[in-house]
C-alpha cells in the first residue's frame, strides 16, 4: 500500500512538472515596476506614449506592469515646497506594491526655496526607499540621476546644484540602501537641444533615457 501511494505521488508531481514546462511564459506573473518622480517622469510636454516610462512599458510588454506615478513640480525633500510624499500618487505607488522602483526626483529640489533643507536630502531619500521596502522587502530600487536641466529664472532649477550637490547625495543614498544608480545626467549631457524649455526633454530625449534605463534593467549596462 505504501508503495502504491508513493508511486501515485510521484506520478502527480511528474504531471505537475510537465504541465509547468509547457505553460506559456505569459502565464508567469508580470513584474510590477513603479516610476516615482516629477514632471520629467510624468512626461510633461510630450504625448503620454512618448514619455520614458511609457516607452519602457511598451518595450517590456507583458513581462512587466509599469505604473507611472510622476507628478509635475514635485520634490523629494519633505520640507520642500511640494514634496512628492504628500501626493495621492505617492500613496498609489505604495499601494501598487512594486517589485522594482525607479525614483526620478531631485530636479526641483535644486530650487533655492527647497535646497535650504539640503541637510535632510539623504535621510529623506532613504526614508522613501524604506517605506517602499516595508511593502516588499525584496524590492529592487533604481535611483535616477537628474538630467542637466536649467530653469531660466532666479532661484529656479539649478544645473550647478544638480551636478555638484544633488547627484553626489543621490549616489550616497543609493550606496547606503544598496540601490542601483541609473545615470541619466550622463545620457543627456550636451543634449540641450532635446530640452524644449531648458528642463523637459522632447520625445527624442525621452527615447534616449528609456533606452539607457532598459539597458540597466536588463543588466546590459553598468553605471
Automatic annotation (TrEMBL):
InterPro entries: Ester_Hydrolysis_Enzymes, SGNH_hydro, SGNH_hydro_sf. It comes from the Bacteria. GO terms for molecular function: phosphatidylcholine lysophospholipase activity. Residues 35-208 form the SGNH hydrolase-type esterase domain. It holds the Pfam family Lipase_GDSL_2. This is Sialate O-acetylesterase.
Amino acid at each position: 500500500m505504501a508503495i502504491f501511494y508513493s508511486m501515485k505521488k510521484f506520478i502527480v508531481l511528474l504531471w505537475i512538472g510537465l504541465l509547468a514546462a509547457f505553460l506559456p511564459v505569459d502565464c508567469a506573473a508580470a513584474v510590477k515596476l513603479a516610476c516615482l518622480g516629477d514632471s520629467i517622469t510624468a512626461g510633461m510636454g510630450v504625448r503620454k506614449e512618448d514619455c520614458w516610462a511609457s516607452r519602457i512599458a511598451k518595450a517590456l510588454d507583458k513581462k512587466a506592469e509599469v505604473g507611472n506615478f510622476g507628478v509635475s513640480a514635485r520634490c523629494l525633500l519633505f520640507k520642500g515646497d511640494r514634496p512628492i510624499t504628500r501626493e495621492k500618487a505617492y500613496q498609489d505607488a505604495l499601494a501598487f506594491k512594486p517589485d522594482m522602483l525607479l525614483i526620478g526626483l531631485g530636479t526641483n529640489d535644486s530650487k533655492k526655496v527647497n535646497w535650504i533643507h539640503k541637510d535632510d536630502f539623504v535621510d529623506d531619500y532613504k526614508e522613501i526607499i524604506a517605506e517602499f521596502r516595508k511593502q516588499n522587502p525584496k524590492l529592487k530600487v533604481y535611483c535616477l540621476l537628474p538630467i542637466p536641466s536649467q530653469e531660466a529664472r532666479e532661484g529656479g532649477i539649478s544645473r550647478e546644484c544638480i551636478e555638484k550637490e544633488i547627484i553626489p547625495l543621490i549616489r550616497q543614498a543609493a550606496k547606503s540602501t544598496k540601490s542601483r544608480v541609473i545615470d541619466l545626467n550622463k545620457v543627456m549631457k550636451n543634449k540641450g537641444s532635446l530640452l524644449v524649455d531648458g528642463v523637459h526633454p522632447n520625445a527624442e530625449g525621452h527615447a534616449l533615457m528609456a533606452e539607457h534605463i532598459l539597458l540597466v534593467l536588463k543588466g546590459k549596462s553598468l553605471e
